[in-house]
Automatic annotation (TrEMBL):
Molecular function GO labels: 5-amino-6-(5-phosphoribosylamino)uracil reductase activity
Bacterial bifunctional deaminase-reductase C-terminal domain span: 2-162
Gene Ontology biological-process annotations: riboflavin biosynthetic process
Record protein name field: Bacterial bifunctional deaminase-reductase C-terminal domain-containing protein
PANTHER family, A to Z: 2,5-DIAMINO-6-RIBOSYLAMINO-4(3H)-PYRIMIDINONE 5'-PHOSPHATE REDUCTASE, DIHYDROFOLATE REDUCTASE FAMILY PROTEIN (AFU_ORTHOLOGUE AFUA_8G06820)
Matches recorded under InterPro entries: DHFR-like_dom_sf, RibDG_C, Riboflavin_Biosynth_HTPR
Length: 169
Protein backbone atom coordinates (compact mmCIF):
# COMPACT_ATOMS: atom_id res chain seq x y z
CA UNK A 1 0.00 0.00 0.00
CA UNK A 2 1.39 3.37 -1.00
CA UNK A 3 0.41 6.16 1.38
CA UNK A 4 0.86 9.77 0.25
CA UNK A 5 0.29 12.76 2.49
CA UNK A 6 -0.94 15.82 0.58
CA UNK A 7 -1.05 19.17 2.38
CA UNK A 8 -1.42 22.80 1.41
CA UNK A 9 0.64 25.02 3.69
CA UNK A 10 1.45 28.70 4.01
CA UNK A 11 5.02 29.90 3.53
CA UNK A 12 5.25 30.30 7.32
CA UNK A 13 4.27 26.67 7.85
CA UNK A 14 0.58 26.58 8.76
CA UNK A 15 -2.17 24.41 7.25
CA UNK A 16 -5.00 26.40 8.89
CA UNK A 17 -5.56 29.29 11.28
CA UNK A 18 -7.11 26.92 13.84
CA UNK A 19 -8.78 23.52 13.87
CA UNK A 20 -12.27 25.03 13.55
CA UNK A 21 -11.71 27.01 10.38
CA UNK A 22 -12.39 25.45 7.03
CA UNK A 23 -9.61 24.43 4.70
CA UNK A 24 -9.40 27.81 2.96
CA UNK A 25 -5.99 26.93 1.57
CA UNK A 26 -7.19 23.66 0.08
CA UNK A 27 -10.17 25.23 -1.60
CA UNK A 28 -8.08 28.08 -2.98
CA UNK A 29 -5.26 25.90 -4.37
CA UNK A 30 -6.96 22.51 -5.00
CA UNK A 31 -7.28 23.01 -8.78
CA UNK A 32 -3.49 23.27 -9.08
CA UNK A 33 -2.66 19.78 -7.80
CA UNK A 34 -4.87 18.34 -5.05
CA UNK A 35 -7.97 17.72 -7.12
CA UNK A 36 -6.40 15.77 -9.98
CA UNK A 37 -3.98 13.86 -7.78
CA UNK A 38 -6.58 12.66 -5.29
CA UNK A 39 -8.93 11.73 -8.14
CA UNK A 40 -6.17 9.54 -9.58
CA UNK A 41 -5.38 7.95 -6.21
CA UNK A 42 -9.10 7.38 -5.63
CA UNK A 43 -9.14 7.03 -1.84
CA UNK A 44 -8.65 9.82 0.71
CA UNK A 45 -8.37 9.60 4.49
CA UNK A 46 -9.36 12.55 6.70
CA UNK A 47 -9.60 13.23 10.41
CA UNK A 48 -13.02 13.74 11.93
CA UNK A 49 -12.43 17.47 12.57
CA UNK A 50 -11.63 18.05 8.92
CA UNK A 51 -14.62 15.99 7.83
CA UNK A 52 -16.90 18.05 10.10
CA UNK A 53 -15.73 21.14 8.22
CA UNK A 54 -16.09 19.50 4.80
CA UNK A 55 -19.54 18.09 5.66
CA UNK A 56 -19.56 16.03 2.44
CA UNK A 57 -17.28 13.26 1.14
CA UNK A 58 -14.89 14.18 -1.66
CA UNK A 59 -16.87 13.61 -4.88
CA UNK A 60 -15.65 10.68 -6.95
CA UNK A 61 -13.28 9.44 -4.24
CA UNK A 62 -13.78 6.96 -1.42
CA UNK A 63 -13.55 9.16 1.70
CA UNK A 64 -12.44 7.43 4.88
CA UNK A 65 -13.00 9.37 8.10
CA UNK A 66 -10.85 8.47 11.10
CA UNK A 67 -12.38 8.85 14.56
CA UNK A 68 -11.84 7.20 17.92
CA UNK A 69 -15.62 6.76 18.03
CA UNK A 70 -16.96 3.88 15.90
CA UNK A 71 -19.79 5.20 13.72
CA UNK A 72 -20.72 2.37 11.32
CA UNK A 73 -24.27 3.70 11.03
CA UNK A 74 -22.90 6.69 9.05
CA UNK A 75 -21.15 4.50 6.44
CA UNK A 76 -22.20 4.72 2.82
CA UNK A 77 -20.15 1.87 1.41
CA UNK A 78 -17.62 2.97 -1.21
CA UNK A 79 -18.45 6.66 -0.70
CA UNK A 80 -17.81 7.58 2.93
CA UNK A 81 -16.66 5.11 5.55
CA UNK A 82 -15.88 5.81 9.22
CA UNK A 83 -13.01 3.94 10.82
CA UNK A 84 -11.59 3.70 14.30
CA UNK A 85 -8.71 1.60 15.53
CA UNK A 86 -5.18 1.04 14.30
CA UNK A 87 -4.16 2.78 11.08
CA UNK A 88 -2.11 -0.20 9.92
CA UNK A 89 -5.20 -2.42 10.25
CA UNK A 90 -7.17 0.04 8.11
CA UNK A 91 -4.45 -0.03 5.42
CA UNK A 92 -4.37 -3.83 5.50
CA UNK A 93 -8.15 -3.98 5.14
CA UNK A 94 -8.06 -1.61 2.15
CA UNK A 95 -5.40 -3.82 0.53
CA UNK A 96 -7.71 -6.83 0.84
CA UNK A 97 -10.30 -4.77 -1.07
CA UNK A 98 -7.83 -4.31 -3.94
CA UNK A 99 -6.87 -0.73 -3.09
CA UNK A 100 -3.15 -0.10 -3.39
CA UNK A 101 -2.84 3.65 -2.87
CA UNK A 102 -4.38 6.18 -0.50
CA UNK A 103 -3.99 9.90 0.12
CA UNK A 104 -3.92 11.21 3.68
CA UNK A 105 -5.34 14.73 3.45
CA UNK A 106 -5.38 16.13 6.98
CA UNK A 107 -5.77 17.63 9.33
CA UNK A 108 -2.86 18.09 11.61
CA UNK A 109 -3.68 15.37 14.16
CA UNK A 110 -4.44 12.74 11.54
CA UNK A 111 -1.22 13.56 9.66
CA UNK A 112 0.82 13.24 12.84
CA UNK A 113 -0.71 9.90 13.75
CA UNK A 114 0.28 8.48 10.35
CA UNK A 115 3.77 9.99 10.58
CA UNK A 116 4.48 8.78 14.11
CA UNK A 117 3.59 5.24 13.03
CA UNK A 118 5.94 5.65 10.03
CA UNK A 119 3.10 4.87 7.60
CA UNK A 120 3.61 7.74 5.13
CA UNK A 121 5.66 6.92 2.02
CA UNK A 122 5.51 10.22 0.17
CA UNK A 123 4.70 13.79 1.13
CA UNK A 124 3.38 16.47 -1.22
CA UNK A 125 3.38 19.99 0.18
CA UNK A 126 1.75 22.73 -1.84
CA UNK A 127 3.33 25.92 -0.52
CA UNK A 128 0.71 28.62 -0.94
CA UNK A 129 1.88 32.23 -1.25
CA UNK A 130 0.28 33.20 2.05
CA UNK A 131 1.36 34.03 5.61
CA UNK A 132 -0.92 33.33 8.59
CA UNK A 133 1.46 34.37 11.37
CA UNK A 134 -0.02 31.72 13.62
CA UNK A 135 -2.06 28.58 13.24
CA UNK A 136 -1.81 24.81 13.20
CA UNK A 137 1.13 22.96 11.75
CA UNK A 138 1.24 20.10 9.27
CA UNK A 139 1.49 17.57 12.10
CA UNK A 140 0.72 18.21 15.76
CA UNK A 141 0.50 16.44 19.11
CA UNK A 142 3.47 14.11 18.61
CA UNK A 143 7.27 14.41 18.62
CA UNK A 144 8.35 13.35 15.16
CA UNK A 145 11.77 12.23 13.93
CA UNK A 146 10.74 12.10 10.28
CA UNK A 147 13.49 12.55 7.71
CA UNK A 148 12.60 13.43 4.12
CA UNK A 149 14.33 13.16 0.76
CA UNK A 150 13.35 15.68 -1.93
CA UNK A 151 12.10 14.02 -5.13
CA UNK A 152 10.74 17.01 -7.03
CA UNK A 153 10.05 20.72 -6.76
CA UNK A 154 8.08 22.76 -9.26
CA UNK A 155 6.03 25.89 -9.57
CA UNK A 156 2.24 25.54 -9.53
CA UNK A 157 0.31 28.33 -11.18
CA UNK A 158 1.83 31.79 -10.78
CA UNK A 159 2.93 31.79 -7.12
CA UNK A 160 2.60 28.37 -5.46
CA UNK A 161 5.29 25.68 -5.23
CA UNK A 162 4.98 21.91 -5.04
CA UNK A 163 7.51 20.10 -2.86
CA UNK A 164 7.46 16.32 -3.29
CA UNK A 165 9.38 14.22 -0.77
CA UNK A 166 9.78 10.59 0.08
CA UNK A 167 9.98 9.59 3.71
CA UNK A 168 13.31 8.00 4.59
CA UNK A 169 12.52 4.70 6.31
N1 LIG B 1 -4.19 22.99 4.46
C1 LIG B 1 -4.58 21.76 4.26
O1 LIG B 1 -4.15 21.08 3.31
C2 LIG B 1 -5.58 21.14 5.20
C3 LIG B 1 -6.09 19.88 4.90
C4 LIG B 1 -7.01 19.32 5.80
C5 LIG B 1 -7.40 20.00 6.93
N2 LIG B 1 -6.89 21.22 7.17
C6 LIG B 1 -7.27 21.95 8.38
O2 LIG B 1 -6.90 21.19 9.52
C7 LIG B 1 -7.74 21.56 10.60
C8 LIG B 1 -8.23 20.30 11.31
O3 LIG B 1 -7.12 19.59 11.80
P1 LIG B 1 -7.10 18.94 13.26
O4 LIG B 1 -5.74 18.51 13.55
O5 LIG B 1 -7.80 19.86 14.21
O6 LIG B 1 -8.10 17.71 13.12
P2 LIG B 1 -8.14 16.39 12.20
O7 LIG B 1 -6.79 15.78 12.14
O8 LIG B 1 -8.86 16.68 10.95
O9 LIG B 1 -9.11 15.50 13.09
C9 LIG B 1 -8.70 15.09 14.37
C10 LIG B 1 -9.64 14.02 14.81
O10 LIG B 1 -9.56 12.92 13.90
C11 LIG B 1 -9.60 11.70 14.61
N3 LIG B 1 -8.32 11.04 14.44
C12 LIG B 1 -7.15 11.58 14.05
N4 LIG B 1 -6.21 10.63 13.96
C13 LIG B 1 -6.81 9.48 14.31
C14 LIG B 1 -6.37 8.15 14.40
N5 LIG B 1 -5.11 7.80 14.10
N6 LIG B 1 -7.25 7.21 14.80
C15 LIG B 1 -8.53 7.54 15.09
N7 LIG B 1 -9.01 8.78 15.00
C16 LIG B 1 -8.15 9.73 14.63
C17 LIG B 1 -9.94 12.05 16.03
O11 LIG B 1 -11.35 12.13 16.02
P3 LIG B 1 -12.35 11.88 17.27
O12 LIG B 1 -12.20 13.12 18.09
O13 LIG B 1 -13.69 11.77 16.59
O14 LIG B 1 -11.91 10.66 17.94
C18 LIG B 1 -9.32 13.43 16.18
O15 LIG B 1 -9.90 14.18 17.21
C19 LIG B 1 -8.87 22.38 10.01
O16 LIG B 1 -8.65 23.74 10.28
C20 LIG B 1 -8.75 22.14 8.52
O17 LIG B 1 -9.22 23.25 7.79
C21 LIG B 1 -5.99 21.83 6.33
Amino acid sequence: MKVSLIMTMTVDGFIARDSGTDAELVSAYAPLFFEDTTQLIGTVIVGSNTFSLLKEPFPGRLTIVMSSVPQPERNISGIVEFHSGELKDLLAELETRGLHEVAVVGGSQLNASFLVDNLIDELYVIVAPRLFGQGISLASNYDLETELRLLEERQLGSDAVLLHYEVVK
